[in-house]
Amino acid sequence: MTDTASDIFAALAHPTRRQILQDLKDGELPAGEIAARFNATGPTISRHLSVLRQAGLVTERRDANRILYSLVSDRLALSVGDFLSTVCPEQIVMREVRKRGSGRANTKTAEA
Question: Which residues does the UniProt record annotate as the domain HTH arsR-type (predicted)?
């Protein structure tokens, strides 16, 4: 496992960080709003956001005096997918079967 994958899995190890990622799935949020969703201090949430940012799972941008965080969803999906493919080669086969199956479903829907 590469250091990058280790960083990602270490970031995913804490339930607060997993919840932050879930909260960001619908779009960008300011740091204060993220912190308000938890029963933890601001510095604690800031540290969790830093771990997620260092793992490349979230990005931040400044807007005046606010820091806005966004999910980097493709990074998470690719990293976890790569790991699963190495540990569970059947995952690759299952993914291909699902792709073919959804392609047929789309074709049938288009024909109807």
Answer: 1-91
| Structure token pair of residue 56 | 């490349």
Question: How many Å apart are CA 38 and CA 90, to the nearest integer?
Answer: 38
Euclidean distance between CA atoms 84 and 68, whole angstroms: 31
> Could you state, in order of their start, the residue ranges of all structural domains in the chain?
1-112
Confidence at residue 91, expressed as pLDDT on a 0 to 100 scale: 65
24: Cβ contacts below 8 Å, ≥ 6 apart: 34, 58, 69, 70, 71
Question: In sequence order, which residues have a C-beta less than 8 Å from that of residue 34 and are 6 or more positions away?
Answer: 20, 23, 24, 45, 49, 69
Q: Please, which residues bridge with residue 70 across strands?
A: 59
Intervals of the chain under pLDDT 50: 1-2, 105-112
